[in-house]
Amino acid sequence: MLFLYNILTKIRNGASAQADFIVYAIPIGGVPVKAFAVLTLMRKIGMIRGFYYNEQSLHGKAETRFLIYLKYDAAGKSVIDTSFFVSKPSRRIYISAAAL
């Protein structure tokens, strides 16, 4: 689940910097399928405008790169207003889906 923390942190930091897009790279053999699923869900519910991905090799290292387009409202404010983690590796907290 570390990839989820990393991708959400990059999106939050990009949104606070008013960036149009961010780049998220995963080494081949990492978790690109899970990242693809998370980004597809975020696009479907309107948290990001969209994303593009490709596999490439730079300096002998193969990786999957995601180009994630951030979404802002008409006033220029990010549609993602708050994101935080309730659970972390040293402290697991479980809640029901209904409580979200």
Set out the fold topology.
Elements: H1 2-16, E1 21-27, H2 32-44, E2 48-58, E3 61-70
Antiparallel strand pairs: 1-3, 2-3
Q: Any overview of this molecule?
A:
The protein has helices spanning 2-16, 32-44; strands spanning 21-27, 48-58, 61-70. The chain contains 2 helices and 3 strands. It has a 3-stranded antiparallel beta sheet with strand order 1-3-2. The model has no long low-confidence stretch (mean pLDDT 82). The protein has one domain: Ribosomal Protein S8, Chain: A, domain 1 (2-Layer Sandwich), CATH 3.30.1370. The protein has 100 residues and is an alpha+beta fold.
Oligomer: single chain
Pick out the low-confidence regions: none
Shape by Cα distribution: globular
| CATH fold naming | Ribosomal Protein S8, Chain: A, domain 1
Secondary structure tally: strands: 3
Mean pLDDT: 82
